[in-house]
Amino acid sequence: MIKVAIFASGKGSNALQIIRHFEGNSAVKIALIVSSKKDAGVLDIAKEHQIPAITLDKNTFLSTNDYIEFLEIEGIDFIVLAGFLWKVPTGLIKAFPQKIINIHPALLPKYGGKGMYGHFVHEAVINAKEKQSGITIHYVDELYDHGAHIFQAFCDITEQDTPDSLAEKIHTLEHTHFPSVIEKVLLAN
Ligand code: GRF
Q1: Is the bond leading into 109 cis (omega within 30 degrees of zero)?
Q2: pLDDT, tens digit, for every residue of 82-118?
Q3: Is residue 12 pLDDT above 90, yes or no?
């Protein structure tokens, strides 16, 4: 059984799709939800689905290995970042080599990096008058939004699109593709 921890900071709509996708799966278990915010919506989702959840302490997460030991004791095999806003510390990346993936709401390498998340990304894409946007699912390395790409999906941008309408299109792509891409990566490992 491959045990997966989902790291999130927000509503958790991606986490919810992933949880639903793997419900009843005999090879993959969503074993833990890890949040960087104590009032994040993703914690309510964890409760509704009886999945253990923890809220990180920022200093402990960024400056100690305490959480790495905790994840290893919990038998976590793989980490999925689904709207997790903190940079993953090098120690965690080294403890889970090629076993941490992230979803970014744009077509990396453009519109990525520190501060490029959520609405800021869609605003930048619209302001640049891009004709297309999309999602990038990638392995996590020591730099923000920089690791090897696993998958990209695309959507067109019209004259009428706003950052909010683009966010809707991107969320639809995320919810459609992220769970199955995770499954392919897990079963290929
Ligand atoms: C998504 O847009 C994802 O691409 C980004 O953070 C957002 C998370 O949204 N990394 P949610 O919390 O899953 O609704």
Answers
A1: yes
A2: 999 999 999 999 999 999 999 999 999 999 998 899 9
A3: yes
Specify whether 104 is catalytic: yes
**Best residue among 174, 176, 177 to mutate for probing ligand 1, ranked by most atoms within 8 Å of CB:** 174
Tell me, using a 6 A CB cutoff, whether residue 36 lines ligand 1. Answer: no
**Angle between helix 13-22 and 163-188 (nearest 10):** 30
User: For residues 139 and 136, what is the distance between their CA atoms, to the nearest angstrom?
Assistant: 10
**Predicted confidence (pLDDT) per residue in 135-173, tens digit:** 999 999 988 888 999 999 999 999 999 999 999 999 999
- Any ligand 1 atom below 6 A from CB of 45: no
Q: From the CB of 83, is ligand 1 less than 6 Å away? A: yes
Catalytic residue, from 49, 104, 122, 138: name it: 104
How far apart are alpha carbons 37 and 10 in whole angstroms? Answer: 8
Task: Please tell me the pTM assigned to this model.
Answer: 0.95
* Nearest-5° Cα angle at 148, 41 to 187: 70
Element (H, E) at 72: helix 66-73
**Residue 83 CA: which ligand 1 atom is closest?**
6
Domains and CATH numbers, the chain: 2-188 (3.40.50.170)
Best residue among 103, 121, 169, 173 to mutate for probing ligand 1's pocket (most ligand atoms within 8 Å of CB) is 103
